[in-house]
Amino acid sequence: MKVAVKYGAFDHEPVIDERGDIVGQSAGITLVRRLMSLFPDPVLIGSQTRRGNGFTMMPLEFVDAADTLVINMDVIDSLAVWQTLHSSGAEPRLMNFEWQNPSIYHHRINFAAMGLSFAMFPTFCNSARTAAEVREVVRRWTIQPLAEKARIGWVNLGVRIERVQPRVTPDVPVVLYPAITMTPRKQPQLFCEVVDRVARQTPLRVEARLHETHLVSDLAMTLSMKSYAWVGPLTSTREAYWDALARTTAFLATAAEESYGLEYVEAMLAGAIGIFPDLPWAHALVPSGYPFFYSTTDQAELLLTKAITDPEGCRAQLDNLVDEPTFADWIRATHNDDDFEKAIVERISEWFGQ
Known about the structure:
Helix content is 38%, strand content 15%. The chain is an alpha/beta fold. Helix 3 (108-120) packs across helix 4, helix 6 crosses helix 11 and helix 11 (297-309) packs across helix 12 (311-319). It is globular.
């Protein structure tokens, strides 16, 4: 059985460069690469047929439904995908990969479409929180006979621990904006307010690497005019991304909700001190007793100031929190992507007999 990955139906991604590599460092693109690395001769669903670096791209209409499992990351259109595959007469093998919170949508039509998609096709989720939302969508938006048969699995995504680079101490503490968008869900206004307060007290440098569609947003433009801030595009390679994390002192998370929080985990693994809102999604990433949670803007300001003025003290505090030799070792053990790879392969075998 071959495996095909479908992603980018709504963002017109992915794009392949002249070398046959998939372009981009967004969370979705990164997951596409990770999924395809798990299977021999994978297929990437795209707008044309061409050979990529270690995979084949082809339109959905050209996929042989008789011997191909399609992993759909655009879960809201799984019914249309099934119909396209079924037009050949074969019984399609189709699996959802839900890597975002269903609650990013707001219209009842979208929830109804997702509910039917989750109920009809096996769904693998990127975290326990996402799986809980998926189950709630199925419960609320489908009839009971379908809801009872829903097959839902999950595992935390984890990170590629071998990519971590040696730490570099910057001349001026670096505070990361830990997202690639400035959507309301990320609450970038709160981030800007807190770092502006801290910058009045102590030197810092803010770095924000954004998707090109958000570089021209009002908030991004306003932040870029601050003397202490650098706002630019995403890094061109994963190596450059990890190099940047290696010199990051701290990050301030302000999101109201996250399905998992991959960038936060990667930053903490690289040695950055994470300042989090006191919310369930954030508690799921760190050990019990984690000391850097805030409930108010004033608390966020105090914690971020502490993180950039005494980073070594903060890291020592985190090391003392865990049984492992260091806090980074705890992150490695808890958020290792080997668990993800093993779990998704096992679920595919369970659900599709391969």
